[in-house]
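Go through this one:
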Amino acid sequence: MIAIFGNPKDPHAQEICNKTNMLGYDCTIISTARCSLKDTSFIFSHNHGHSSTIKINQGGNTVCLDSVMAALVLQPIFPLFSTTAQEFNQELKFWFFTWRESMEGVYAVLERKKVLLNDSVSNAMANQNKIRYISAPITQFLRQPKTLVSNNKESLLNFFVNSHQSVILKTLHQMQLSLDGEPTMLLASLVQRDDFLDFGQANECPVLLQEYIDKIYDVRLTIVGNQIFACKIDATKSDAGRIDWRAYDLPNTPHTPYDLPEKISEEINNICMQLKLDYATIDLCVNRAGDYYLLDINPYGKYLWIEHAIGAPITDAIARFLIKKSFNYANTYDDKATPSIKDGPSIRQ
């Protein structure tokens, strides 16, 4: 069995599950949504160090972890804070943290079985951290913008060459926010030195500043095993998306297939291998000199709009990757197991 952990309403989970089933392999979605966990039966049984088992029952469907031979985690657990107003009392907090620990136990067991895409949930979560990958060794051809993460006023002011220079202000991690009851997010924006003259000296969280790259277009990469699906995103004609294409001004932001230079592809594959990532979305930008800059790595990045925009078979690649991973597991315990599906993305070792 192949298991997908996440929100069953997420179209990514639905598409991957449907494609895997269409290819003739049993796949199920185990919901980590709050509404689903309210009606979920969870059993972890351990017998004096001799055997352990975990069973999860949702909607009459029981999944035993012993039968899971490949797994994809799209949402490890629902967010405690959501865009809907609600009271976070002690009971809810206890309920949430107990479910979180229970699910992390599930992922730990799957990690031990070596059936998880992206090696482990903890590894994938850690690799969302911008400081983690920005501080990694510089590659030969991929550049990184000059970056500062600080809550020290003097260091923030010194990051600017002069009062007229604009730099990019970003969030360290994207989180759920709301505006007038609707979900929203903070986009990257241009700031100047004067914007930090009133920055507080105490009780301020660190902020992320990066040098402004005079880019001519962005490149969105979706990594599946050793396959790279590249999409050129040209937001130069969009007032809303020129700084951050995530404004999704699609009529003014053409998406087209992109031929990534081999030297950049090799470095991307090396980065993913070092970070133990089988799946990730990676954002690059290209300046007028033709230099490639690494902007973001997200092991939980979305891809469906890219698939629809340029016709890239990303869902098919993920499904086939999971199937191959299940074969790897089966071959470990059954010498007679042989793959019957070909031409899928290779699995990182």
The chain has three domains: 2-116+314-333, 119-143+214-310, 146-212. The CA atoms of residues 45 and 53 lie 5 Å apart. Residues 2-116+314-333 form one domain. The longest strand covers residues 215-224.
